Automatic annotation (TrEMBL):
Key words, A-Z: Iron
Protein name in the entry: Ferrous iron transport protein A
Domain Ferrous iron transporter FeoA-like, residue spans: 1-78
Matches recorded under Pfam families: FeoA (PF04023)
Keyword Cell membrane on entry: no
UniProt superkingdom: Bacteria
Gene source species: Qipengyuania pacifica
UniProt KW RNA-binding keyword: no
Cross-referenced PANTHER family: FE(2+) TRANSPORT PROTEIN A
Length: 79
């Protein structure tokens, strides 16, 4: 399951990231923020319009916003 489809406020563990689906600079930024295999994340907010962008996730003590296209590249499993 991808992060985009994961339930709101439930904790997930990142099992894989499709780095080739992301631009190189976007991948570097996400890695620098701790988005990588093994990290625990939770979706805490979704945009309200048709695309549901952006998606806010909690990773550690940080809250970061992702585009839906980024969330589609992140595969997760329930933690």
């Amino acid at each position: 399951m991808t992060l985009d489809g994961f339930d709101h406020e439930k904790t997930a563990r990142i099992v894989a990231v499709n780095w080739t689906a992301l631009a190189e600079d976007e991948g570097k930024r996400l890695k620098a923020l701790g988005v990588d295999e093994g990290a625990e994340v939770a979706v805490i907010h979704r945009g309200i319009f048709g695309t549901r962008d952006p998606i806010a996730i909690r990773i550690g003590r940080m809250t970061i916003a992702l585009r839906r296209s980024h969330a589609l590249a992140i595969e997760v499993e329930p933690a």
